[in-house]
Amino acid sequence: MSEKEFLSLEEVAEMLGVTYQLVYKLARSGEIPAVRLGKLYRVSRADLAEYLESKKRETQGGGTCSVCGEVYRSRQSLQHVCQEDGCNEAICNDCWTRRGVRKCIEHGGAVK
Ligand SMILES: [Zn+2]
Ligand SMILES: [Zn+2]
Question: Which residue of 8, 47, 95, 109 is 20 to 30 Å from 67, comparing CA positions?
């Protein structure tokens, strides 16, 4: 039995226990890291695992801003993430909006 590397959105929906429509929306908005093959979206297993991990962190609530190091108790204050491909480091609203930071420190973002 060999596992497919890429999953269809239907398969992803089944795995997550959500509707296909929701997965499609998330894939289109880029929330779920999907690649487009022709007219169809495909999600790689590795990307999906990563997405689920970040979701898990999210539901735990709160976190640390990767830029200023501020600890927030609510995820509301950490809605942004590093714009580097594949990086999901959280960036707080303060850094994002007021300081214009778009990347985590590791990827060249810095508090100006
Ligand atoms: Zn910050
Ligand atoms: Zn980053």
Answer: 47
Distance CA 70, CA 43 (A): 33
Nearest ligand (C-alpha, residue 104): 2
Q: Which ligand is nearest to the CA of 85?
A: 2
Query: Model confidence over 6-51: pLDDT tens digits?
Result: 999 999 999 999 999 999 999 999 989 999 988 899 999 999 998 8
Domain residue limits at 73: 61-112
How far away, in angstroms, is 2 Cα from ligand 2 center? 33
Distance 104 CA to ligand 2 centre (A): 4
Comparing CA positions, the residue from 75, 74, 111, 107 lying closest to residue 96 is 111
The model scores a pTM over 0.90: no
54, 65: one domain: no
Tell me, yes or no, whether 1 and 55 share the same domain.
Answer: yes
